[in-house]
Amino acid sequence: RKEVEQDPGPFNVPEGATVAFNCTYSNSASQSFFWYRQDCRKEPKLLMSVYSSGNEDGRFTAQLNRASQYISLLIRDSKLSDSATYLCVVKGGTSYGKLTFGQGTILTVHP
Amino acid sequence: GAVVSQHPSWVICKSGTSVKIECRSLDFQATTMFWYRQFPKQSLMLMATSNEGSKATYEQGVEKDKFLINHASLTLSTLTVTSAHPEDSSFYICSARVDQPQHFGDGTRLSIL
Asked: In the A/B pair of chains, how many CB contacts fall below 8 A?
């Protein structure tokens, strides 16, 4: 079983749509959780951290369920510029714990 | 914000060549840097953790003699792919840890002919 699993998609949605991505992780000792965005042939960039209480940043909402070891990302009012690969990332329990990346979910927003 | 610079951004060379990739932290000191590799349509995979002044820690399955890491200063880590072969062609990305999260370099696209 992969340490971090995501639905690879692709998700093809029209502008203005709401889309949700899911992610599960296997290491219950994981401490920190993130969503990164990666554009084609570019380095990943942090989209947002994910907290147990859930957090929102504009059109993006992230949720964490530790009991189920499940992370989600909701994008509302999708824009063309949201087209990218979204990476679910989990960090281990130590201060220098490594980041483990999911394979990514591809999103394409079309006019 | 923290900036990590990676050089070169693109390398094309013949099989058997050794290739050095540099990763620099531009406005902060990084005692720890990370090297990742990403094959097409796959996720980033951590190759090794580079520690300033000491030996790198390699992930399982990564050959330390093949992928030489040197972290001689607080702002520079280098990855040398020795005697590169076509199967080493990939996207190599470094990152440096500054609290949370890690900051990534632009990546190096390596193509071995």
From this structure: 43
Geometric angle at alpha carbon B91, from A38 and B24, rounded to 5°: 85
CA B87 to chain centre: 16
User: Phi and psi of B66, rounded to 5°?
Assistant: -90, -40
- The sign of the torsion formed by the CA atoms of A82, A88, A93, A98 equals negative
Distance CA B113, CA A26 (A): 38
* DSSP string for residues in B55-86: --EEPTT--TTTEEEEEEETTEEEEEETT--G
* CB contact set of A17 (below 8 Å; sequence gap of 6+): A78, A109
Q: Which of residues 54-93 of B touch A (CB under 8 A)?
A: 91, 93
pLDDT digits (tens, 9 = 90+) for B34-45: 999 999 888 899
3-state secondary structure of A76: coil
- Cite the beta strand spans of A51-111 per DSSP E: 55-57, 60-65, 70-75, 84-91, 99-101, 105-110
For B53-89, how does the pLDDT look when each residue is reduced to its tens digit (9 = 90+)?
A: 888 999 999 999 999 999 888 899 999 999 999 999 9
Chain B closest-CA separation from residue A63 CA (Å): 18
